[in-house]
């Protein structure tokens, strides 16, 4: 009788989206790298670990035939070590666009006026967390380390713990955790905390976020901590700070790549002797995009000697274009850019160069290499990896960074500003 084949330890990553996004155009499927800090930051783990990634591929299940669903599942499993969780159009609407984006996101970023408290959306959040667990359950093996990511799956750690009490479960939050006074506004505050307490280790970007979480656990669940360790149901739960990083070598060596160099030269020719201020963000009210435009306008008003000698290159990746707050933000950004260019521009100088699209790595790396200043002014941001990417890509240059970004707690040499203080930005 042959001995059973030994199984290697695995890391199972569970997140709302897979590292690969699936597109569907006129019946044709396409596969591409997912946008966002989570997929970018964890993509290199495939090279070092035996991994399984569990998540939604990005297309509502009704938009694919059963044959297409099977094809997606097979290809993602074979080529990307990924396990697909299919979500219906209603689940995407209520769970993702509803509870995640209209409740958790604005509340955790300190925009309470944007928060919707909808019990149907929360019920969908519960169902989808259960759906993720049901999909994951048959694939959990002894010795697996299960790493759950972000605010979309805060109930999942306890679901895993209930069924697999000996499992190793970690949870990491990629956005800020708000103060107790903000978090307590949630009707489902206790349920979310108890869901997270199913993990053995809970990680945050900064000490402030960890401190807010521990304060909420003490006041809402009644559990104290000792040096960041919570005793709960016979277990010791660690709460600690793990600032997310980037693939440093990828950005530090980018300027030597031929496909990057071919983008650098046209940018340098276009800029000439002018200085470039670079802004890179997804369209979101938490990113403080109007603040940096007002700060730049203040600078041009206050320093006429810089007219014609500086350009703000603004890259804004489209996001949630159907949501009213984002439509209004897009309108405000468009009007501010038009106002600056109309009031200060000349025949041979456009003060703001505006790109309403995402940039591929090669073009973005070229922009990093050419920019003299990176301007990052979020109202609230979990980390902000753009600041780290720019610092890795440049031997010199300046980062102007909001004090409310997680990266401000880590990076030692940026010019740290209050994003509401326009003279300070200027």
Explain what the structure shows.
This protein is α/β, with parallel strands linked by helices and 426 residues long. The chain contains 15 helices and 17 strands. A nine-stranded mixed sheet has the order 5-4-1-6-7-8-11-10-9. A six-stranded parallel sheet has the order 14-13-12-15-16-17, with helices on both faces. It has a two-stranded antiparallel sheet with strand order 2-3. It starts with 10 loop residues before the first strand and ends with a helix.
The secondary-structure class comes to: alpha/beta
Question: Widest sheet: strand order?
Answer: 5-4-1-6-7-8-11-10-9
Strand tally is 17
Radius of gyration: 23 Å
| Rounded mean pLDDT score | 93
Task: Tell me the helix content.
Answer: 40-55%
Low-confidence stretches: 1-7
| Count of DSSP H/I helices | 15
Approximately what portion of the residues adopt beta-strand conformation? 15-25%
Distance between the termini: 76 Å
Q: What is the 3D shape?
A: globular
* Biggest beta-sheet profile: 9 strands, mixed
Please give a quick description of this structure:
The chain has helices spanning 37-42, 66-80, 89-108, 119-136, 156-163, 180-183, 189-196, 207-221, 248-252, 258-271, 289-302, 324-344, 361-370, 385-393, 422-425, and strands at residues 11-17, 20-25, 28-33, 51-56, 82-84, 145-149, 168-172, 201-204, 225-226, 229-232, 235-241, 275-282, 310-317, 352-355, 373-376, 398-402, 415-417. With 426 residues, it is of the alpha/beta class.
């Amino acid at each position: 009788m042959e001995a059973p084949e030994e199984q290697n330890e695995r890391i199972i990553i569970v997140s709302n989206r897979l590292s690969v996004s699936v597109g569907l155009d006129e019946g044709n499927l396409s596969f591409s790298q997912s946008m966002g800090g989570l997929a970018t930051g964890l993509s290199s783990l495939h090279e070092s670990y035996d991994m399984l990634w569990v998540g939604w591929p990005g297309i509502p299940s009704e938009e694919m035939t059963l044959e297409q669903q099977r094809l997606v599942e097979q290809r993602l499993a074979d080529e990307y070590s990924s396990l697909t969780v299919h979500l219906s159009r209603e689940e995407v609407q209520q769970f993702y666009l509803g509870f995640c984006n209209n409740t958790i996101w604005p509340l955790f970023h300190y925009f309470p006026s944007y928060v919707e408290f909808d019990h149907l959306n929360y019920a969908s959040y519960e169902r989808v967390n259960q759906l993720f667990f049901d999909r994951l359950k048959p694939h959990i093996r002894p010795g697996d380390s299960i790493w759950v990511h972000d605010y979309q799956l805060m109930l999942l750690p306890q679901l895993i713990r209930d069924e697999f009490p000996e499992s190793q479960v970690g949870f990491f939050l990629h956005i800020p955790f708000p103060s107790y006074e903000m978090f307590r506004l949630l009707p489902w505050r206790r349920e979310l905390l108890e869901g997270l307490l199913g993990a053995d280790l809970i990680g945050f970007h900064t000490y402030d976020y960890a401190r807010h979480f521990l304060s909420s656990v003490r006041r809402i669940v009644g559990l104290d901590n000792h040096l960041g360790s919570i005793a709960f149901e016979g277990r010791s739960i660690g709460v600690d700070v793990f600032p997310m990083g980037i693939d440093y070598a990828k950005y530090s060596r980018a300027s030597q790549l031929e496909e990057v160099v071919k983008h650098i030269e046209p940018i340098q020719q276009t800029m000439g002797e002018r200085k470039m201020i670079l802004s890179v963000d997804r369209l979101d009210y938490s990113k403080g995009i109007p603040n940096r435009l007002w700060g730049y306008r203040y600078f041009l008003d206050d320093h006429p000697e810089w007219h014609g000698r500086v350009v703000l290159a603004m890259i804004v990746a489209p996001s949630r274009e159907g949501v009213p707050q984002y439509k209004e933000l897009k309108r405000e950004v468009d009007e501010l850019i038009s106002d600056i260019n109309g009031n200060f521009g000349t025949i041979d100088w456009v003060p703001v160069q505006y790109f309403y699209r995402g940039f591929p790595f090669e073009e973005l790396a070229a922009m990093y290499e050419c920019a003299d200043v990176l301007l990052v002014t979020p109202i609230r941001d979990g980390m902000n990896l753009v600041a780290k990417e720019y610092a890795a890509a440049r031997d010199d240059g300046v980062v102007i960074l909001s004090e409310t970004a997680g990266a401000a707690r880590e990076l030692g040499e940026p010019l740290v500003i209050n994003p509401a203080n326009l003279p300070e930005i200027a």
